[in-house]
Amino acid sequence: MLEVLRNDLFECAAEESKLSGFYVLRKCQPLIPGFLPQVIVYENSGTIINPETPAVINSELFRAIEDGDIASISPNGKIRVILSRRANHNTLLLTERCDNRCQFCSQPPKDGDDSWLLEQAILAICAFNLDGEIGLSGGEPLLYRDDFIRLLDTTIEHAPRTRLHVLTNGRAFADLSFTKSVAKRTEHITMSFGIPLYAANSTIHDKLVGAEGAFNETVKGIINAGNSGINIELRFIPTRQNAQELPFVAEYANRVFTNINQISVMNMEPMGWARKNWDGLYLHPLEYPLLLENAAKISRQNSTPLYLFNYPLCHLPEHLHELSVQSISDWKNYYPKECSSCSMKNQCGGFFASAKGKFLQSPQRYV
Ligand code: SF4
After folding, report:
1. Which residue among 311, 348, 356 is best mutated to probe the pocket of ligand 1, counting the most ligand atoms within 8 A of its Cβ?
2. Centre of ligand 1 from the C-alpha of residue 209, in Å
3. Atom of ligand 1 nearest to the CA of 365
4. Nearest ligand 1 atom, CA 351
5. What's the gap in Å between 292 CA and the centre of ligand 1?
6. How does pLDDT run across 64-113, given as a tens digit for each residue?
7. What pLDDT digit, counting tens, does each position of 102-160 carry?
8. Are 166 and 66 found together in one domain?
9. Distance from the CA of 289 to the center of ligand 1, in angstroms?
10. Which residue from 22, 136, 9 is spatially nearest to 65, judged by alpha carbons?
11. Which of 32-41, 57-66, 93-102 has the lowest mean pLDDT?
12. Which residues are in the Radical SAM core domain (predicted)?
């Protein structure tokens, strides 16, 4: 098995796998039932204290969790810890549906009603009640609009300390009345929205996201959201098709939009359709340092911070290292063996676990 920084997937015995669904994991006696059913995790059968309560015996899982973490248990006996107090990022999937078809989508959309995901997410947020940030992703998380508003209202009522960061294509914000409904909730909960704009023109953006008209809706959405006071992180993934657009998008962020708190330039993740389209899309970062520099300069001039996400430090010129963030979630983050003796490892974000094999762009360790 690939060595990731934090394993989130465990096996349970046949008897235990009857516990299918979302659960609060307990390491001690269950509390009064809340938003989700509870299951006690025991290190071994000798430590069982309450034979009446649903239980999982797994020493590895016991050591990996904190009391109150949230897991999904599937009928095939897999336990995935979906909200962890030890994780560097926590993210919930609200839907697998999407109105874009991005060429590099790491989680290709599926059709069909999956509204149960959002319902489970609401319960998970409330049960976890984190004093910290939870990411909400998809698919397109704003597709079920009224239900998304209900998610916000329930979070405000039951988990008001939880901050939400939503990854959206922003098209739903083209609807001003929906945007105002979301903006109203920002008075009661801390929220930000990561919205990608892949070009400063519709031809390139629409082609990359596989949806005609998407650029116009996303731009209108970002304008509506910014003008309504919603915090926006503007995202950009450089590829062979659009890397040259990065400085223009940085200009756009500062001249056309308001309330852009940050520009995040993201190195492509070799997952989903990005793997299929890799050769036509992937551009090694050392092929576009000037574009990164120009975009960073424009952002600096306009006092909008620009950061580089998912870049191994040895894939960047040294003067750009200060912009790099250790951003890969711990459950999918790994360092190839070359990194073990690299002097920069502690500062470096390493690689996606999915890069292992033919998608790994060689690390060049620092001595
Ligand atoms: S060799 Fe590994 S640890 Fe060192 S900079 Fe490259 S990716 Fe990071």
Report:
1. 348
2. 31
3. 1
4. 7
5. 20
6. 999 999 999 988 889 999 999 999 899 999 999 999 999 999 999 999 99
7. 999 999 999 999 999 999 999 999 999 999 999 999 999 999 999 999 999 999 999 99
8. no
9. 18
10. 9
11. 32-41
12. 84-301
Ligand 1 centroid vs 356 CA: distance in angstroms?
A: 14
Do 40 and 168 fall within a single domain? no
Q: DSSP letters of 241-281?
A: TTGGGHHHHHHHHHHT-S-EEEEEEEPPP-STHHHHTHHHH
Q: Count structural domains, the chain.
A: 2
Record the tokens describing residue 115, joined without a space: 């509204």
* Cβ < 6 A, ligand 1 pocket: 312-314, 335, 338-339, 342, 344-345, 348, 350, 363-366
Number of C-alpha atoms within 13 angstroms, CB side, residue 345?
13
Of the candidates 29, 33, 73, 83, the residue with the CA atom closest to the CA atom of residue 51 = 29
Domain of residue 179 covers: 91-309
> Residue 34 pLDDT > 90, yes or no?
no
Residue nearest (by alpha carbon) to ligand 1 atom 2:
339
